[in-house]
Design goal:
The chain is α/β, with parallel strands linked by helices. Helices cover 38% and strands 16% of the residues. The chain contains 24 helices and 17 strands. α16 (431-446) packs antiparallel against α17. The protein is globular and about 80 Å long. Mean pLDDT is 86; it is low at 250-269 and 648-658.
Length: 663
């Protein structure tokens, strides 16, 4: 038995867990209000005999008790996600009781890739009335004046000793979170989950029990059961969990997360997909050659004209050296709107040209920041706490562009259209999306949360993406088209930098950044002025055939990929391969919740066939990880780029202009 800890993203402190050994797939445990996971789940864990991870919610058990932690369900879910990620055991079968079950619902919605299955025991799903003696009604300021002791006196004597170990604020605020149930929307969150889920009810009645069943959630009720079903009926519960989690490991037999659609494809009228396939070539059924795919792609995306390198007026604002890196903060004119922020990185002390790399940031559910997901500035620290869980979950805890630079590359990162310096101001977002965000803000304010400017922006950015996509479509372009325009400009700027070896640069990215990398490489082959600028490509966790993505996985993806008309261009792996014979590494995540395994398997076959005429220029690898670009994947990508990019002179050369130093 060992312990572990993960840092909290938005306040000082850590969340802790106890790790146990066993055989079989790992199981994680979450406890109820005022409890701890080891005390709550020890008997169940002993019966299961599987590797265990007993996570204590913030303010409970072994975890810290930071005074600034709000104890809302989303905050606790983010903390548990950090623990599961840092433990290295995800995806897990998660067993969660009471408050832990409410937290787990939000966790499954935000981080489905961390969970293999979800077992909810008596979670609080419905808003509940709060009487005078309820912990949720307790005045926080009165806790230190006898209020805490009065709450303890109301507890069952057998539970009182355990509750006494909890943080009083955690108990009161946790009780409010459960009784509020996300303002009454927690059932809706559970109804849209993509994680195979078992709901076990003892003493509680659930208002939307039938709706949950209809959505494919397995619902089991224990006759005359109490709140702690796993301890009251241990043998029955053990058999139920073993049966359910065994099925979760086989997607073909697991319960569907939503009722199957009539068509089985688009969730619309029966036979619609067949009608569309007869109307025009769908998903590359006409076997277009790479040149045709590139031509169709440019037309479908609507890629606008862009400035030349000279017109972009690249400006260096600051140079710095730290941690083995030389960096430059730069910006350039994209032809409209605010200037694009960029950051150039290279190993400190290295003179002469180096292999270049354009590292494109992911979507990540955060649009308030773009390039800052990949690299820090002069002080070497993330500019916002929001970036910490992004890096922990998606990039192996690294600022990955910095690590690439230390490996001997001249790296450029920049804000894509709609992110960071290129985001739409809050004041200019459409009223429809502002109204949706205002409703969510009202719920959070009622829970005592006070999101800062960055967090507030990201609440608006999700619904605004739909509205902006509509406007871009009317204008003849798209999210992907605008991103391609600005990524191609960044590619030109990097290739023109005197610190970059001639002969082509690498383009790489995770998820949405990987889609951008593939599109950039394909479109660069269409332009004479970009000939030879792309020397190698890495696409991480971003490829599956489109038919398998429909319909369930489609809505997990951003408009930056799902452009109207994309299916008429070709299948997505055909688009990724349209840069052939440019060396291409595609990394698949075996536990990727955003791309179905069947679609990924088919995609590898399509990619290999497309590169049959370029032996040694394609590699498709499968990593046993969730949707991410972790350290092993990054190392593989570094090696791929080093193998295929010009290295530049190997001996010391006269010093060239510093990073970002071209005119």
């Amino acid at each position: 038995m060992t312990t572990g800890a993960a840092r909290l993203a938005r306040c000082e402190g850590v969340i802790r867990w106890v790790r146990t050994t066993g055989t079989g797939h790992p199981v994680a445990y979450l406890h109820g209000l005022g409890c701890s996971s080891l005390a709550s789940w020890a008997e169940t864990a002993a019966r299961l005999g599987r590797p265990g991870l007993f996570v204590d919610l913030v303010g409970h058990g072994l975890s810290d008790r930071p005074a600034t932690f709000g104890h809302s369900l989303p905050e606790q879910a983010d903390a548990v996600a950090a623990a599961l990620t840092a433990s290295g055991r995800a995806p897990v079968d998660l067993l969660a009781h009471s408050l832990g079950g409410s937290v787990a619902v939000v966790l499954a919605d935000r981080y489905p890739h961390l969970l293999r299955s979800l077992v909810l025991v008596e979670p609080g799903l419905d808003p509940a009335p709060v009487g005078p003696g309820h912990p949720a009604a307790q005045d926080e300021e009165d806790l230190a004046r006898g209020g805490w002791e009065r709450l303890l006196e109301q507890e069952d004597p057998e539970r009182r000793a355990e509750v006494r170990t909890a943080d009083p604020l955690a108990l009161v605020r946790g009780a409010r979170a459960v009784t509020d149930a996300l303002g009454g929307t927690l059932n809706d969150v559970l109804l849209r989950t993509r994680v195979p889920t078992l709901l076990v009810a003892g003493q509680r009645d659930y208002e939307r029990w039938q709706d949950l069943r209809a959505a494919g959630i397995r619902c089991e009720r224990v006759t005359d059961g109490g709140h702690a079903v796993m301890r009251e009926q241990p043998g029955w519960f053990h058999r139920l969990v073993e049966d359910f989690t065994a099925g979760a490991g086989a997607p073909a037999t697991a319960a569907p997360p939503h009722p199957p659609s009539a068509s089985g494809h688009l969730g619309a009228f029966d036979g619609l997909r067949d009608v569309l396939a007869r109307s025009w070539p769908l998903f590359g059924e006409d076997a277009p050659d790479p040149a045709t795919v590139r031509h169709r792609l440019r037309a479908a995306l609507g890629v606008p004209v862009r400035p030349t390198v000279a017109e972009a007026d690249l400006t260096v604002h600051q140079r710095w050296t730290r941690d083995g890196l030389e960096g430059a903060e730069v910006s350039w004119d994209a032809g409209f709107g605010p200037r694009v922020r960029g950051r150039v990185l290279r190993p400190a002390g290295r003179t002469g040209p180096l292999p270049g790399a354009l590292f494109l940031h992911c979507h990540g559910g955060i649009k308030s920041f773009g390039l800052d997901k990949l690299a820090d500035g002069a002080d070497g620290r993330p500019v916002h706490d929001l970036l910490v869980p992004v890096r922990d979950t998606l990039y192996g805890g690294r600022a990955p562009a910095e690590d690439l630079a230390r490996r001997g590359f001249h790296v450029l990162v920049h804000d894509g259209f709609g992110w960071g310096s290129r985001r739409t101001p809050l004041s200019a977002l459409p009223a429809r999306s502002t109204g949706q965000a205002a409703a969510e803000l009202a719920v959070r304010h009622a829970r005592g949360e006070r999101p800062d400017e960055a967090a507030t922006y990201d609440l608006h950015a999700g619904p605004a993406e739909d509205a902006v996509a509509k406007a871009l479509g009317v204008l003849g372009t798209s999210w992907a088209g605008m991103l391609a325009r600005e990524d191609l400009l960044a590619l030109e700027l990097l290739a023109a930098d005197p610190g970059v070896a001639a002969g082509g640069v690498g383009v790489l990215g995770l998820s949405g950044g990987g889609a951008r990398a593939a599109i950039t490489a394909a479109l660069a082959r269409e332009e004479e002025r970009l000939a030879g600028t792309v020397g190698a490509v890495v696409v991480a966790a971003m490829v599956a055939t489109l038919e398998e993505v429909l319909p369930e996985h489609l809505h997990c993806h951003t408009w930056a990929l799902m452009t109207p008309g994309l299916g008429r261009v070709a299948d997505w792996p055909q688009i990724v391969a349209a840069g052939v014979p440019t060396p291409l590494l595609v990394q698949f995540a075996a536990r990727d919740a955003l791309f179905p395994a069947a679609g990924a398997d088919r995609a590898r076959q399509v990619l290999a066939a497309a590169y049959a005429t370029a032996p040694g220029s394609f590699r498709g690898t499968v990593h046993d990880v969730p949707h991410s670009f972790g350290r092993a994947q990054q190392d593989e990508a570094h090696d791929w780029l080093a193998r295929h990019l010009p290295a530049g002179p190997s001996t010391a050369q006269p010093d060239v202009s510093p990073p970002g130093g071209h005119p």
